[in-house]
Each structure stands twice: as structure tokens, then as C-alpha cells.
Predict the 3D structure of the following.
Amino acid sequence: MSVERHELFEGDVGAYLLGALEQVEERRFEDHLQECPVCEEEVERLRPAVQALPRSVWPMKPPDSLKASLMASVEVDVREREGRRRTRPLAWISERARRASAAVLDVGPRAAWVAASVILLLGIASGAAGLYALDGVTSSEEPRPPASRVIQAKVDKTRVPFGSGSLVVPALLEDGAVLRVHGLRPLEEGSVYQVWVRRKGEAISQSLFTVGEDGEGAAAVADDLEGADAVLVTREPAGGAKAPGEQAILRVPL
Amino acid sequence: MRRADEIENLADEEVMRLVQEGNPRAFKLLYDRHGGASFSLAYRMVGDRVNAEDISQEAFLSIWRSRARYQPDRGSVRTWVLGIVHHRAIDALRRNLVHDKRRASAEGIEERHEAPERERTDVEAARREEARHVRDAIGELPDEQTRVIELAYFGGFSHSQIADMLEMPVGTVKGRMRLGLEKLRKGLREKVG
């Protein structure tokens, strides 16, 4: 590496660490770092100063809805992962049966799948009990986490003809839930969707949300749902209302 | 599977190892430990709770979904988490979703405060003490160095935007950034030492 080339970049160290280079400059600087131990050392030497900056911020309490929403998403991921795991044994048996039938019967791939289906159907009757027992063993060794509840929403189709929604109540949380909606119209500027929990006839505001161009959105319900009879969604002025300004367009019965 | 109270006592790096294995309880603990600092940083950068919440959510979901990327030899979990939040906030600022140049002025980036949380635990008290310590070190920098560092780090402005804003050459801005970081590094070391 030439001295001239190093001099071109050495002034960028601070801006690079602070994230203040333009994208192209940043890529060029990172390429230079690969070949310049002097700049690399300088970056590492000054890095602790940049890493200290976020620690200067006064700590604030995040809203409870943030944790509720995050953990609901995590739980959905965990459920999906478990769902994929559970379908694997059948896929594995199916694939083994296809290979076995192709080998034994010496047939092409299409015929092998037909033969495999027959073998699989015959095998399911005798194997189901075994699989069930195997599942039982797994369950006793590692208890399944309690399941979250998913409650479908009832939608006023006269006002939101393509709308749908569901409330995910995660089992990992003591309270809180996440409302997911689909097919809602993006509102004009100055309006938002507002989520309410209705308890003994009183609607308590939970959160505000908007939907994207695809009509999809999500919102947190931070309150304990104990004793509540419904989660509601209304359309309100930006900033939200103190009480619902219209009949709910979407209602999740509890 | 570890019991919840066993996880509670683990160091961050151990908790992160469990998160990498896909353990949701460990992830919840990770959030409990660093969610406050993350939200605070995002709020400091974008200046409103709704966007700060969105940024924190995106950052933690990316941590959960790309959890394999944490490398203990590259720094503490806290530094790693805050780095991700910072990147997300910069992205949001640069997408112009929340960039409000009125917040930035020749005086620097306006820091918005909410009523401070009461210190309920030793951890919260320690976080405040840490914040005071770093703020003292920043306070010892010359104003012109503090200004460019804050505009870049908390405001998400590039060096050329800062040069325009402060009506000075780009080279001067870059130089002040580097000198400021150098002085801050020394200041922090002296306070620790």
C-alpha cells in the first residue's frame, strides 16, 4: 500500500466511526482498511470512544406495548419452527419410501412417487401408533411451551369489505396481545386506526396504528385482557381520541 | 431446558448463547436488560416515542432472527445491541421518515427529555451513573467538537451535510470529529483510571 493512498483515507477515520461517511465513501474506506494496518489500528483505538456515546443517554422506560409486541412475534417464530420440525418425520418417511420404491421396483421418478404413496399409506396404519408414542416420549423429556391463543376478528364488511384480523395472545406473557390486520385501507393524512379494550362497557385506548399500501398492520394491546369482553378498532383523528368516535370496524370477541 | 431463575443469573454472553440457540426466555431477558437503553438511544436520535418504539422493535427482531451473528470476541452484548439500534435509527433518519432538520442547528442536536425515571433498582442507578460519567467526559470537549460528533452520531447527518449546516469545509468537520473522539477516549480512560 502506498503512503499517498493512506493519506487519502486517514482523515476519514473519525467520520467512519461516527457513521458520517456517504455509502460509497464508507465502502471505499472499508476496502482500504483491509490493506492498511495503520488505519485499522487507529479505528480500533478510537472505537471505544464511539461505543461510549450511546451510554451517555439518560435511561427511559420503554412502553410496555413494545415488549408485548416483540414477544408475540418471537412466539410466532417459535411456533412456526416447531411446526416445521413436526412435519419433518413424515417428509423423511415419504422421501425414504420414494427412494426405496425406486430402488426396489427400478422405476422412474413419477412412478416412484406413486409407489411411495402406496407404501406410505400402508405404513401409516402400522406406523402411526409408533410415531404417536415417539412424540409422547419427546413430550415427557421436554415439555411443550403453553400455546398462544389466536382469536379471529369480526369485521364490519359494509365499511371494510376486504378487512380481516386476528388477536394473538402469547402464552409467554402475563398480559398483553398483538392485533394483526389485513386488507384495511390506508387512511388519509390526519387519521389513524385506534385500538381499544372494552371492559364493562367502557372502551380503554391501547394504541394507534396505520397500515401500509398492502393493507397490513399490527398493533399492541398492552392491557391485561382479564375481564375484558372485546378488542375494538375504530378510525380516529391523528393523535387518537379519548373515546371511540364511531362503531368499531373490527371487533375481536374475548 | 434451563429454568427461568437459572437464566436470570447468567452473564449477558451466556444469555446471548441461549438466544443463539433460539431460546425465547433468554431473548426476553436480553430485552429486559437492554430494551431500556435501546429505546432511550432511539428516542434520543429520532425525538419521538412512536418512531423510537418502531426502531427498537425492528432492532430486537433483527437480533432474534439473525442471532447467529453475535461474536463475543468483537465486544460486549450491550455494545452490539446498541450498535444495531444505532444503525436502524440512522437508516430511519436517512430514509427521511423522521429526519427533521429543524431539530439540528448550529448549536447541535436538541436533546429531548421526558420526566426522568425514578431509580428503582441498583441497575437503574448504575445506568444513570454511567450516563453521568460519559456525559462528563463529553462535557470536557470543546463545543465545536461536541457539535460535529453529536450531529453525526445522534443526528445521523453525513460529514458533508454537517459541513453545509455549519458552513465550514468538509476537511474541518472530519478533523474535529477525529480530534473529538481522541479527546473523548483519553477523557474516559482518565475517569476510569
Q: What stands out?
A: Chain B has two domains: 11-99, 112-193.
